[in-house]
Amino acid sequence: MFLLGLVDDIYNLPAKFKLVIQILIATLVYLLGVKIDINISPPICPMSFEYLSYPVTVLWIVGISNAINFIDGVDGLAGSVVTVNSITLALIALAVSPGYPISALIAFILAGSMLAFLTYNFNPARIFMGDSGSLFSGFLLAALSITGVMKGAALAILLPFIVLAVPIIDITFASLRRILKGKSPFVADAEHIHHKLLKAGFSQKKTTAIMTSAAIAGGGVATYFAGSIKHYVIYIIAIVIIMFCLSLINVFRTKKQV
């Protein structure tokens, strides 16, 4: 997924071609055992929905990968949302029983990497994520949500939707809007949520803060329902510390530029 994004950054690949490659990547992941299990057993006429596992898994991986790519339109936005989502998924993977420490470890590594990146990506950004970074980050979030959340929590299928609410809402409305206008959902436009906030008069920093706050709220709700109060408190403390550190870095960079 990273290589696909890298080639796209250099050569600007056609959207349909990228979609085909992403489906193949998601199929490979599914064959390796990272898949969403559809377990529904109604009391009357029990039915197997296992046949839905493949299309739902592919849709989830491809959708989340592109959702992060879609919100990467404002300095610091995608990185901040990915950081919050990664920490949330990591804590949930540890909170559920049985726990999934490997998934949690990878999620924490992603969060740490993104924090280092954010020190140079806040407005005005000096480096950018590009399709390579956004597709790779979204891919990891999608896979980690399957391995560390959907397989262990009580309301497993619903939790990732709460955790990843910001990118999911954005890509859903963007796709529906384009389809209703008779356009391809893969053709980029300037009507995403962050674009609307910018048009409403918010600065890039305030737009990033608003959407990151929404991600934090979703993460808090998901952590509360997935684990114990202990993990919820850890989540709040971790988010407060990280936001404080990032604010200091942002202030330091601003003073240095002045």
Distance between the termini: 39 Å
Give the number of DSSP strands. 0
**How many DSSP helices?**
11
How is the main sheet built? none
Summary, kept brief:
This protein is mostly helical. It has helices spanning about 1-10, 15-30, 55-70, 75-95, 100-120, 130-150, 160-165, 165-180, 195-200, 205-225, 230-255. Helix content is about 70%, strand content about 0%.
Name the descriptors.
258 residues; mainly alpha; 71% helix
What does this structure look like?
The chain is built from eleven helices and no strands. By secondary structure, the protein is mainly α. It has one domain. Helix 3 packs across helix 6. The radius of gyration is 18 Å and the shape is globular. The mean pLDDT is 87.
Give the helix/strand layout:
Elements: H1 2-11, H2 15-31, H3 53-71, H4 77-95, H5 101-118, H6 130-150, H7 159-163, H8 165-180, H9 193-199, H10 204-226, H11 229-257
Helix pairs in contact: 1-6, 2-3, 3-6, 3-8, 4-5, 4-6, 4-10, 4-11, 5-6, 10-11
